[in-house]
Amino acid sequence: IAAQFAADPILTALMQARPGLRVPGAWDGFELAMRAVLGQQITVAAAIRLAGKLVAAHGMPLAQPDGALTHVFPEPEVVATAELASLGMPRSRAATLSAVAAAAVADPHLFDAAVDLEDAVRRLRTIRGVGEWTAQYIALRQLREPDAFPHADIGLIRALEKLESRAYTPAQLLARSEAWRPWRAYAAQHLWTA
Which residues have a catalytic role annotated? Predict the structure, then answer.
């Protein structure tokens, strides 16, 4: 990874600041996908609030709560049939959550590793409401695709803009990321933590 990024002074500096930084995975692909959809085009704090509402309304209560942890994340079968609009989110987001849940019920291996990144993204994008950003994010965190790169992510764009003191569009960031292949997920993690 360091050899691939060696020609890029920004990533070289980020790697030197955080040697050994890795891309965090997720224990549960369905939960990660739900959280990715909940986080579309809103702040992290707002996404956390929505996830809390979803879990409180549809998650199974723990027999013995542990501090603030009182429920487990709802299963796909529950979310697929739940009334979600009452949780205070746009109908389109609720519909996407339902579609992802239904897809997870229909294909229990939906969040298993794919043949390659393109196959993974293509498979995820067949789900109504799942676009390129969401598919790339799921591929990065759950499928552990080392070249996954959600190039339209505002956090990535803003981080690179700040580091390079120039504006970037998603298309420009995508073009810039070509030099980071096949390790763009690691570049994303370094930019997110910059």
Answer: 153
